[in-house]
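Same chain as my last thread, 264 residues:
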Amino acid sequence: MKPNNHQHNPDNYWLGLMIGNSRLHFALFLGEMLQANWDTEYLSPSLIQQLAIANTPPDFPPLPISPIPIILASVVPTQTALWQTYPKIQTLTLEQIPLAGMYPTLGIDRALALWGAGITYGFPILVIDAGTALTFTGADANQNLVGGAILPGLGLQFASLGQKTGQLPLLNSREIIELPPRFALNTSDAIHSGVIYTLLAGIKDFIDNWLLLFPESKIAITGGDSKLLTTYLQNNFPAIMEKLILERNLIFWGMREIVIVNQE
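reply #2:
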């Protein structure tokens, strides 16, 4: 991490905001140092205005300055538009992320997480983001995007079965306490089994294939379901854990690196 001689200057506080597909993800920084992070539901325009005039909305910790500068990245354009009235906002774009070979529709959340992981742990790197969508995104030793894949995440798979079928119950990942039996004897366990074991097998297959291409690569997992999936991977494929790094803040590590570059 690069030194910052003015680390404790109150003016160096800033807030990272990642607008995800289902929630807002915040990280409070003092210069380069992460102070706190939290998630909230989407904020209404009135609550965004409240944040701008020194009154913190519900589910927010007290903020050290107001209005605090916000560095924003988003994958939801309608939500992005709501934040444009905030007085100290900087919206990041793909062009600001120094990865080579990116394509125009690459999600900025994937690009930031990949850049943050690569800068923190080294390239080549594979990032698995277990959020609303489950994504795989990799870069080689020369910081070139290799590519990746996208599929419905754990919660989205449960939701699609519950909402698009006539008799299957609506389940969610928060109900899972332990791995279900693979061959289940009730409907809820059968859904858990089908989704979880297939998802774990798919993750293992992508990791195995990546390591054939880049045997010395690190692999990082992030996102809301990352801790749960890491626990299950440990139980089923313990050898994978020797390469796997669990880190919830990869997007903010990438965001921080771009903020640092802009200050130099």
